[in-house]
Amino acid sequence: MPVSWEAYQAKGPSVVALGTFDGVHLGHQALLGRAAAHALAHQAISLAFVFSRPPANYLGQPKPLLLPPEIKYRKIERFGACAVCAEFPQLASMQPQDFVHTVLCAKLHAKGLVVGTDYGFGKDRAGDVGLLRSLGQRHGFFVDEVEPVQIDGQAVSSTRVRRAIREGRIGDAAQLLGYFPLLCGQVIQGEGRGQKLGYPTANLECSDDFISPEQGIFAAVACLKQRAYPAAVYVGTKPTFSGRAKSVEVHLLGEDVPSLYGRTLCVQLTAKVRDDQAFASAAELKTQIQADVDAVRRLITQPLPETLCLDL
Questions:
Q1: Which pLDDT value is given to residue 312?
Q2: Which is it for strands 247-252 and 227-236: parallel, antiparallel or unpaired?
């Protein structure tokens, strides 16, 4: 589990990967993998120094998160690193030299740092990789600058992932992330229309803090109590019923589906089935839902895609 940088108790030298790690996409994974390799070679501890939220979220330019923090930290741990966390306001006014001395050296006992080519740190991002190298010579740590991971001629970035998810390009998002994107929310009481149509759904209350597709029907996998279920996911405004507010509903396929009310449900979106649309009647909608469920069954094949199996 993550630890705050103030509470971290060093048990030896460390190699620290630096970044926000929102999404832990392929670029982040390259940093974490490099840090783990250096840590092994230098008999050090692999750490990831992370902000719980992107700095822009505190500077009037909020970005929807790609993962809930608890899942982000678990993914980081899968790459052999312990997550050391900070809130951006704690460090926003710290000069670059003070950040290196107080946090990286005195607290984390950094023997090496792993950063991306555009890494900036300290107040107003005044520090860059060149300054890190200079400070490393003074304090006795090395700096490994990792080139961006490229897909389709462009660097993998959280911005690209957000755009792909928002537009419903699930395959593109998964290619950038290295895993299927997640959609999480608390299951709340709905209007019961799905039950009446013969396809009961779990209505997710999804926070605007997290990214989600604008609209559509999606194939997905949900994991509950260590069991994976294929799922059909609806995201839209229910135009057949003159809805206005965005709604997220999950229909789990399978038998013995446990009660979901009140719990947090996370599903991995694996493919888009179709766009949202209005239908002339509830009967016409029901026919289309059956076609959508059939499509999901074809898209979700055995074995089911890997899920985190979080019991949140």
A1: 42
A2: antiparallel
